[in-house]
Structure formats: C-alpha cells, structure tokens
Amino acid sequence: FSVAVPVVLTVAVMPLSFSIANGIGIGFIGWVVVRTAAGKAREVSPLLWIAAAGFLVYFARGWLESLVGV
Question: How far is CA 40 from the centre of its chain?
C-alpha cells in the first residue's frame, strides 16, 4: 500500500496535468507522506525529503506569490 499510492498518484497526475514534472513531484511528495504516515520515515532518504520540500514550494509558488503581492 505504501508503495502503490505514490505510484498511482504519479501515473494519474501526469496525463491530467499534461506535465511529467508535476507527476514526478506529486509522486515524491506522496512517497514521503505515505511512508511517514506508515511509520517508516527513517527509510526515506534525506535527498528525497529535500526534493519533496522543493516540489512543495514549486506547487505552492502561485499561492505564495499572491500572499506576498509579487
């Protein structure tokens, strides 16, 4: 289950958003969230934590810019 959910999210988001990068980003974020929720946060690589945080900033960029007023 903790492997299948991020894979399904990745495969579903790619064609719906017309972007491979969006699908991979959702997959990274999903992997970190699901593995952490399953109690296996120690098995997640530090580099994957950084990549997931970067994708969170990437997805929240429009919302953050509207808050700042840029």
Answer: 17
Distances (CA, A) of 12 to 6, 27, 50, 69: 10, 10, 23, 32
Q: What is the pTM of this model?
A: 0.85
Task: Give yes or no for a contact between 11 and 23, defined as CB atoms under 8 angstroms apart.
Answer: yes
The tokens describing 61, both together, are: 């960029």
Average pLDDT value for the chain: 92
Largest CA distance in the chain: 41
Nearest to 58 by CA among 32, 33, 12, 25: 25
SS (H, E, C) 12-55: HHHHHHCCHHHHHHHHHHHHHHHHHHCCCHHHCCHHHHHHHHHH
User: How many residues belong to the chain?
Assistant: 70
